[in-house]
Amino acid sequence: MKKLMSVLLVSALAVGVLTGCGGTKKDAEKSDVIKIGVFLPLTGDNAAGGELELRGIKLANKLHPEVLGKKVELVIADNKSDKAEAASVAARLIERDKVKVILGSYGSSLSMAAGNIVKTSKVPAIGTSCTNPQVTANNDYYFRACFIDPFQGTVMANYAFKNGARKVAIIQEVSNDYAVGLAKFFKDAFIKLAGPDSVIEVANYQTGDKDFSAILTNIKAMNPDAIFAPGNFTESALLIKQARQLGITAPFLGGDTWETQEFISVGGADVEGVAFSTAFDREKATTAEAKKFLDEYVKEYKGEPSALSALAYDAYLIAIDGIKRANSTDSVKIRDAIATTKDMEGVTGKTTLDKNGDPIKGAVIKTVKDGKFKYIDFVDVK
């Protein structure tokens, strides 16, 4: 009897272990649900950006709920705007939730923190708006829906130069990989245009800082033609607000993180006239998918979408397209299919991924006018 009980116990444990690990690969293939993980900052400093991206992913899932005849289930996790949490969340999505693809994150630092996790686990990830080149560098399992900072920095350097700037100051959020990278690429591009002495100052501040008076007083004395200040939307808006209060009238330029309502809410009238690069605008929405997205977004959320929502929507489409072309729920096969993405029609245009997993697409330049984001120009990839 004892021997029989031991056998039964061992068998039960074996079944439990199998179930806990998500079953066999064959079982996974038979499942009528495909899980896609979503890791975004839904709390913390970057929450506003994460929420905008979650809107885009949820809308994409609503309009494209199935692939290979299976329901697509989103497994949503909050990385809390924290690098350590981002790595932990990515691991949990893979190990516990058995997702086949991961979407995210807003914030290059957060995406980079998850890079080794997806690479060693061989589960592909598609970045939403993480523009630092290091996100996909030397990582065959990380892709993205957005342009990268060397291009974005060059776009804004050209914009500054064409609008008369010959000497600029840079103020960067030094604890933010995105801001530091974008500042460097802007600096390099502007020096090529205006000469070695054209960048007259590079000043640093930390994420969470609220008093920029010392930095701004120093820069005011230098009298730059323009100020490039890539950083998170809250700190950037406070920085510009304090600059105007000090009497600095030079135009402020930035990157795609500024396109959140919080940037306007915090900055108010002081952020009127800024210019920044981003990935989407209604005026350049030419695809059938973009029209569908715009119509449904306005119905769903009662407002105009930002580029963050559009890019996140496209990241979902890249994942679905990869699964469909792989004709499989095997993550390695899905990765291989995503890597060959070509002319996939999305909201931000047609997406073709290069050898690094980065899309070849242009940039929109916007400003703030009358408390709203307004289109200025479009810069295509040359």
From TrEMBL:
CDD domains: PBP1_ABC_LivK_ligand_binding-like. Keywords: Signal. The keyword Isomerase does not apply. Residues 34-371 form the Leucine-binding protein domain. Gene3D superfamilies: 3.40.50.2300. This is Leu/Ile/Val-binding protein. It comes from bioreactor metagenome. The lineage of its organism: unclassified sequences, metagenomes, ecological metagenomes.
